[in-house]
Design a protein that fits this description.
- With 416 residues, this protein is an alpha+beta fold.
- The protein has helices at 33-44, 53-60, 100-112, 140-155, 173-187, 207-223, 245-254, 325-330, 351-359, 367-378, 383-395, and strands at residues 11-15, 18-22, 29-31, 74-78, 81-85, 88-94, 117-118, 121-123, 131-135, 163-167, 191-195, 227-233, 257-263, 270-277, 285-290, 296-298, 336-338, 347-349, 365-366, 399-403, 409-413.
- Helix 9 (351-359) packs across helix 10.
Length: 416
Amino acid sequence: MISLTLVPPLGSTAIHGKLTIFTATNPFIEMNEQQVLLNEELTQAGEATPVTDLLLNLDRLRITSETEVPEEDFLLRFFGKPCFPRRDLSTVTGVEKCGKTFFTSMLMACCADAGGQTLELERIREQPLKVLWYDTEQSRQSTKSILTDRVFRLTHSQADEGLFAFNVRACTYQERMDYIITGIKAYQPDLVIIDNISDLLSSINDAEESQKLIDQLMQLSTAHNCNITVVIHLNRSGEKRNLRGWLGTEILHKTFDAYYCEQTEDSEYLCVQQSLTRKYRIPEKMYYRINEDGLPEITAKPDVKQRGRDGKFMSTKPEAYQVRTEKIDSFNQDYIIRNPDNPRKPWEWNLYRLFKDAMADRAMMGCEALQNEVMALSHIEQPKYYDKVFQLAVDQRVVQTTLTKNGRVAVILIPA
């Protein structure tokens, strides 16, 4: 490649699909049409610029109003809305033992089932889709049990065709990634499920390696026209967008959509809801339970109202509103609002004052630092109880979570 500095041409002519440019310094320099057009644009911009290989590659990445790009191609629908797009990443998250693998089992079954529907999931394409599932966490026995006793039974089939399940728990994290690349190239799947993505790194808090991993998965999904769905745990705070580690932060930046799994407190019911999307918002929640055959089945929103030892129904109000004298008296009364004329809610937290005092005029705080401050001020002793109070503050628009410039999850106070 000859680097060129374009000066006003003396003339030009076409030879075999290329343009031959005559310049004052070299009367015969052959250039392809892209180079010529690019040089013309640069010259018209006011100065001559060398056309290098790097600049040509950059020009190929340019998007204009006339650029031809493939339409978005989604694999599934959830409550009738498109989701899990090709050439992109999706995420399944939740705390431990909350139904994440049950949900990914439904994804696999929906892709493979002849009818193309599993609970509220529906396959868009009529023909079954090819799925690669990499299990990094469970034993080989558990992987096989999920495949044969759950996925196959949901699809009413015992055929392995189209479903490629690999147990890579015994491999090193480098080997796991190598096997993922090899499998995608060899089998050309429509959907890839990696459960758990954290096991592809030596440390989920390594910023550079986390970014490299997500970039590599994005490149694979684009090059092989597939969706790559990753499973990752939440941090202990349980906040829906607080994915674990620096790796979780990188996933939040790049994923197209994310789905939050949880088990309804003190009940057998599980729930899946969309927690993040770049396009089609899905507000509905899918509630389901595991039947006697070990398979998920749709239910209505469960009534979690419990009876106490006296046979009376227990309160279903948030714990922060429940009347428990020993707890109320132990809290810092400066942050308690008494409602003596309201027997349904005799007291409540002064959430704005509590979180404002905790933040002490700071623009934002990290989740852990804020938790420590709030618990110290309020005399809350149990972290789980703090989580409920924090969620009340979020629901009542007292605080909200955001991402810092460094990609960390932080909390800001919403002006009153």
